Amino acid sequence: MKSALFLCFLALGCSGASNPPAYLAADAFCAPGPGSVEIGGWIGDKLEACQRRRIWTPDSGKVVTQLLDHKDSGGWGNWRGEYWGKWQTAAKLACDWQPFPERLAQVKGAAAEVLKGQAPDGYLGPHNPEHRLEAWDIWCRKYVLLGLLATYDLTGDRLFLEAAGRNLDNLLAELSKKQLKLVDTGHPNLLGTANSSILEPVALLYQRTGDQRYLAFAESILKEWEQPSKLSPTGLRLIETALAGKPPFQNHAYAIMSCFEGVCELYRATGEQRYLQAAVRFGQSVREHERIIDGSVSNQELFCNGARNQTELLEQPQETCATATWMKLCTHLLRLTGDPVWADELEVSLYNAMIGAMTPSGEWFTYHQPLAGERVPSHVQQQDVELSCCVMSGPRGLMTVPQWAAMTSKEGPVINLFAPGTAEFVIRDDVRVSILQETEYPLNSQVKFRVSPNRKTRFTFCIRIPAWSAKTTLSVNAQPVPCVPGAYAKLDREWSPGDQVLLAVDLRGRAVPAPSGAPHLAIMRGPVLLAMDNRLVPALEAPVRLKVTNGRVELTPRTARPDWAWMTFDTSFEVRPFHFHGHYTTNLTLCDFASAGNAWSETNLFRTWLPQPLWLSHAFPSNTWKMLEPGNARPERPKSPQLK
């Protein structure tokens, strides 16, 4: 596998903004600055595909045009005003990774075009004047604000910051004029959660301007959560529920996680420890009660006690918007706490739910993603732009990867993602360190680091040791170093040019029992979930059981694998035919979850959770596309406009 550059500078003031944000609470880890990351290997290929086929496409022009026409009314079926902000924030992340001049110009040009639609009173959104504050207007303004702030952070041009301020000022004035609480607006089924997620850009605006009105508005949103409202007679109580360690509020997963992204930004702005504690405990609760084995959440877009219910054939599981938002929230928590549990979460989501949701060539995403059945392209929600919410959210999740793959701390460099490449770190003004990473992980278990400071110097090099790696070996210049699963190995020493670190993680197959206690098993290999695909598994007329020894599953890599599969392994199963007494053992071939079902057709079926026993002749649910589509009333299977 060819190596690629993997650059990360230790500069905290890494945005293009002329006045970098001022925080009262500093991050434990700093995301790298623009132009500092280039990721190679399989992950790098997926990032490039997403950029080439989804982000840098003519769709960006369409979403600007529809935002400016102000034709949206108060109906519940139209949220197309979110699309530009989603595109703009994904494009900003892509520019942070690879700030090519033509791409920077495209992002700034799109934002400049959007500003032409700002009304004299400051309103900038999709709705016509008589329908402001109705339906999805505030939700869409949230994304407009995020797009403007992303452009400001990228370019440093205060024109975009000022436009964002005028837009928020208009919202504050209209809420005051109509004597509306924020939590009393929006879709009645969402109980105020969706519009409450505007907390994130409000906190960001306060960080960048210091305007106390924005801080007061942000804190008023949190107060409204704790009080009865028109839509929620008991109150949302998001902070209270999180601090108590209770399961997440059983409502819109994507919107609620977006709310806690805002809580993270409000903590950075104020240093209020209660906000950090609430965000962390909320994340822990999602992990315990809602996170599904492939790294996503939700059914019918709602929190649903998904950890327990995931072995069921859920109707509309794992909205891609929710997958992307879970990754974004985990990125916040990793930055704020430096706790590797969030890097572990990001890795599982990346390799499985996130890349599994994207078509192999990167041009489209699924709306919902099952653990058994078929992969279905998202339907088109708005015909004028030929897009859907999830198609626009997917890149926002995937493009977080360069933000957390390599990071910096006050101690020194941090490596979270094992991928081929080189990291360049600034330790002090006169000391730079290059860390070359050579690996084919997770195809194999070894990762080699070559550490080369420009001169001998002492610093701490932190390497994530995954919690699932029960047997890990680590050495520096062939001398063994102790390490602990679920922690960072902190290599504090004087480093010389050419020093070598060798890491070997435990990629033995793990049999994971169903959290509900149902007689099902899933198989994980490192961070990768394995699955059956009907292109690889014969339809035996007999029950089979997975052979498990002390919680481990023997996995033998196949020397020959089909072009469509990234990983394939022969795995032992016990077959018990009914026509004679006794049993025999056979090998069945499994593949990685992201490759399973990647023909995206009604005939290509897969499954992850394996009942014990499993009848292979009935292993793969069919026609699941009818369950996956919202409303279940579409006359035909969706086809994406760009899917080839």
Quickly list its features.
single chain, 644 residues, alpha+beta, 18 helices, disordered N terminus
How would you sum up this structure, described in words?
The chain has 644 residues and is an alpha+beta fold. Strands 1, 12, 13, 14, 15, 16, 17, 18, 19, 20, 21 and 22 form a twelve-stranded antiparallel sheet that branches. 54% of the residues are buried. The N terminus is likely disordered.
Counted beta strands = 22
Q: What value does the average pLDDT take? A: 92
Tally of DSSP helical segments? 18
Percentage of residues assigned to helices: 25-40%
Describe the largest sheet. 12 strands, antiparallel
Strand content: 15-25%
Structural class: alpha+beta
Ends apart, CA distance between termini: 27 Å
- What is the molecular shape? globular
State Rg: 24 Å
**Low-pLDDT segments:** 1-16
Set out the fold topology:
Elements: H1 41-55, H2 59-68, H3 83-97, H4 101-115, H5 137-155, H6 158-177, H7 193-196, H8 199-209, H9 212-225, H10 238-243, H11 253-270, H12 273-289, H13 306-309, H14 320-337, H15 340-356, E1 372-373, H16 389-398, H17 401-404, E2 406-408, E3 413-415, E4 421-428, E5 431-439, E6 446-453, E7 457-465, E8 473-476, E9 479-480, E10 487-495, E11 499-504, E12 509-513, E13 520-525, E14 528-533, E15 543-546, E16 552-553, E17 555-557, E18 568-575, E19 584-592, E20 606-607, E21 610-611, E22 614-615, H18 625-628
Parallel strand pairs: 3-7
Antiparallel strand pairs: 1-20, 2-3, 4-5, 5-6, 6-11, 7-10, 8-9, 8-11, 12-13, 12-16, 13-14, 13-21, 14-19, 14-20, 15-18, 15-22, 17-18, 18-19
Helix pairs in contact: 2-3, 2-4, 3-4, 3-5, 3-16, 4-5, 5-6, 5-8, 6-8, 8-9, 8-11, 11-12, 11-14, 12-14, 14-15, 14-16
